[in-house]
Amino acid sequence: MDNIEPKILQPEGVAPLEKAEPEIEATAARAETFEEPLTTTQEEERISIASNWTLVWWRFRKNVLAVISTVVLIFLATVVLLPDFFATMSPEKTNARLAFIPVQSIHWLDEGQLKPWVPSVEGKRDPVTLKMLWTTDETQKTYVKFFGSSWSYSVLGLFESNIHLVSGADQTQENQIFLLGTDRLGRDQWSRLAFATRISMTIGMISVIVSVVLGLLLGGISGYFGGWIDNIIQRLIELLQSLPTIPIWLALTAALPRTWSPEKVFFAITIILALRGWTTLAREVRGRFLSLREEDFVLAAELSGASQARIILKHMIPTFTSHIIATSTLAIPVMIVTETSLSFLGLGMRPPAISWGVMLQEAQNIQTLALAPWLLTPGLIVIVAVLAFNLVGDGLRDAADPYSH
Amino acid sequence: MLRYILQRLILIPILLIIFSIMVFALVQAPPGDFLTSYIATLASTGSSLNQETIVMLEHQFGLDQPVHIQYIRWMQNLLRGDLGLSLEYQLPNAELIGDRLGLTLVLALFAFVFTWAMAIPIGIYSATHRNTILDYLVTVVNYTGVAIPNFMLALILMWFAYSQFGLSITGLFSRDFEQAPWSIAKVIDLLKHIWLPMIVIGLAGTARLTRVMRANLLDELNKPYMVSGRARGLSEWQLVMKYPVRLSINPLVSTIGWYLPELFSGSLIVATVMNLQNIGPLLLRSLINQDMYLAGAILMIYCFLAIIGTLISDILLVWLDPRIRMEKV
Amino acid sequence: MVTQVHPLIKPTNDLANEPLLKVEDLKAYFFMDEGIVRAVDGVSFDVMPGKVVGIVGESGCGKSVTMKAILQILESGAKIVNGKVTLRSRVHHGDPNSAEELIELTHLHPNSRQMRRIRGAEIALIPQEPMAAFSPVHTVGNQIMETILLHQDVSKKEARQIAVDVFRAVGISMPEQRIDSYSWQLSGGLRQRAIIAMALSCNPRLLIADEPTTAIDVTTQAQILKLLRKLQEERQTSIIFITHDLGVIAQMADEVVVMYLGMVMEKGSAMKIFKDAQHPYTQALLRSIPSVQSHSRVKLPTIAGSIAHPFNRPKGCPFHPRCTHFMRGVCDAAQPHLVEVDEDHFVNCFLYSEADGAKLMDKIETAPPVEKSL
Fold it and tell me: Does residue A168 share a domain with residue A199?
């Protein structure tokens, strides 16, 4: 028996096996010949015992772009949760005298030392055009601090904090840091962007969640029960899908009373976006249910007396959850773009609420834009967010269903 | 096949009736109407309308009637081809929409042709030259193309042209032709201006179509009929163009159904940004000013175009694919 | 027409004893991210005119890749890395009275005009799944006429007539109407006949039938085999018949090539292979066929284990992990070579290796039988 241990320790197993030969002869010889195939079996075993989610993750992490995009989305999610932490000042604070200040980039070194600062700006009014012209004055330095303390805010309603990503080093002096410049009313773009991210991202995500719930429910009913219910739901989906989306959305948002509070408008827009969003998902879910109904494992569950709810929740839905997650991820950017477009036209979110679209309203005039191109930064964030969601969604879809392509 | 098309045709009036109810409900929905806001505007400037005029106007536009009567009257007029009067402009809606509708269609058509003319060849190239540098480049451009909202693209291009070259690339016509009656010179002027909005509106669709075309073609290129074709001595080019390309375009045809309506309505936002004289900005203005009959008329046009788009793709799909064509006969 | 003289072509009138197709040490590898798959690893065999060569082996043994390599239609990523494929081709493709020449196919570029003219006209393929081998959006006739127009100098109308004639020849009734149908409108048997018609449409002298009967039911299968046999005898076409079904081979083949993991294990006349199989693999294959004489309710023997993973190909003889005659230190050490054990009967096994056979025989330790019952 003493040969067993070294055999395990030494996969090559040449020496111990030779010792073993007289005892078990050919059997041992055969065992050795199986060595190479064994490594495959171990690999296969590792794969075969991995849960579906582990498999999805293994495939997903191979996709570099999708992983990078996930990081981007996690960052955006932190902004959504903690806009105050990222903001350098109140997003509503206006100061007409500080309009259209250009982007101030952070200088990291000061006289050879690591001491971040931003240059001050000095405004002069052009006597002819009466426009403010800003020049940066590199001698006037505003020192900035990372993770310094400033005004306090509530963290998710749990506790108070006054830590900010960037703040002025000198708390007695009024903060003059405009990392992304200012707009027409002298509002700080950087801080506004943090709060806009919160609204735009949540609108996208909540409307997708509503869509998913509706889609699962109606698609599931349609596919599982069939018959006249299916017929009605299918006709409804066809009807909604043949609507010209953007004009109808415009009319819907235009019909929202002007007097409504930003919160009310927020929820109304979420619902409006979800109103059509669910149809795509419902179709997909229905298709899956239709094919799953014929599957043997569903029949087996039925025969063993499982309740309908149990069959749906425990046997059917888990087979396509990963797919639903991928589809929903791909639906978020559509919602975000639509909200941005509606708000941009003045028919979505309305000031004082801040969303990417509301911020872009400031960039409608081409002359203003030529003067202050940094007003387009919210648009760049939209592009980055949409790109990230698309890449993650595609990555998830490929990982969840490697045979779809 | 005829029966199938007839079935789809019968569906059109039903859809139109449902849509008209929805549209009317929508334009009716905002509290108050044009007249009240008009009176309020007048009041703020100090002037006022006398009661008689108000009653007269209310009657003229049917605003004194219950909602369902208003709807029926509106529908009756629509069926007679009468789009009603604009409350704001005090002009027949048909006149206001007139040329703008034509421009909407022309723009959408250009964008559509652009999309297909670009996407199919690029998709074919990309799929047949998989994993080459150009294929990667196409993929990158596709992802960005999908990610840029078209109004952002318009803004960026306009800003770039203005700040770099001092050009204002808005509108569909030069100033001289804006009000001019139609002439060959005006058409040429239109062609000179239309390419940019065409690209802006068509880019996202092109990117998506290229991606789908590439994916479909990659699937088809692995099909056994390719082996069979090669074994018969067909050259790669003959083979790819006759079989897989045809088979991968077929399912794309069904996308026309949503792509055409998307082009009609998607141009709306771009038109507002780029100041294109199509029905988009008119709808926006009428919605904001509660010019309900104008908004209703334009919305109905959009609905109609959407239904026609779906119909076209349904018919094309059946016509191109013998499997569906023969089953549905 | 003046015959082109090509350096690789030896026009000669004295080819009567030459094989129609000669495959020598053919190697085709797949180059993938995960590694190299040696799908075909040194395959040699001859196809004599008018003879049927059966190639038999389990799925994944490289049968189909060998055929694709012969036709030079390998998927991208796969390459012929060694070997010679020589075809005794007619100077005027498709013309039965044409003079002949020898062409080395492996020297032609896969996409060259010359190679393309050989495909379909000299060597035709009957693919595995007739349903998938036809495009679903083109009529069957369209695809057959395409082949005819490609290889023969005829008008569209004549091409159609030729297509109708081959349809009739393969026993399709109402050929004039059937020619305008789509593949999915035909029954399995008709589809199979149509694909055979397509292969025959340009009078090739060599047919490669890649598991032509796997997708159809047994009755139709018998009819198709009978048809192929009949056509082969009438036209004196040579056939390379690929299958995993030894029963089909027994019905069809004159010569048999047994393949395992890209290598030829044994080859010889059908008579010798079925009556006097020498290689342990062939023997095991033959034992696993049900026979009329076998007793009912007795479990059929199977071959233990399964075909190795292509990336983890066993060292030495590829069959050694499953072999009942495995010799440690021999079979897993080096690769055996084909040895002629009898006239026209070759075996690729150390049991018969002439060179070091004597030495090996002393060392043989026969492992206990590993056939396990199902």
Answer: no
Determine the Cα–Cα distance for residues A66 and A391; give it in Å rounded to an integer.
5
User: Quick one: A170 and A281 in the same domain?
Assistant: no
CA distance A404 to chain C (A): 19
| Cβ neighbours around A223 below 10 Å, total | 23
Q: Is residue A288 part of a domain?
A: yes
CB–CB contact A254 B288 (8 Å)? yes
Domain boundary residue among A186, A218, A236? A186
Tell me which residue range forms the domain holding A157.
96-186
C200-238 confidence digits (pLDDT tens): 898 898 999 988 877 678 888 888 888 888 888 888 899
Write out the two tokens for B120: 């199919």
Is B264 in CB contact (< 8 Å) with chain C?
no
Spell C19-35 as b/e; 16+ CB within 10 A means b.
bbbbbeebbbbbeeeee
Residues A215 and A364 in one domain: yes
The interface residues of chain A toward chain B in range 371-390, judged by CB-CB distance below 8 A, are 373, 376, 379, 382-383, 386-387, 390
CA distance A119 to A16: 75
Identify whether A251 is part of a domain.
Answer: yes
Helix (H) or strand (E) holding A122: strand A113-125
**Lowest mean pLDDT, pick from A191-200, A204-213, C301-310, C324-333:** C301-310
Judged by CB atoms closer than 8 Å, whether chains meet at A369 and B162 is answered as yes
Give SS3 for C89: strand
Angle of the A262-293 helix axis to the A227-241 helix axis, nearest 10: 130
Query: Does C134 contact chain B (CB < 8 Å)?
Result: yes
Taking CA atoms, what residue in A is nearest to B310? A242
DSSP class of B90: -
Contacts of C312 in chain A (CB under 8 A): 36-37, 39-40
One domain, residues A226 and A264: yes
Global pTM value: 0.79
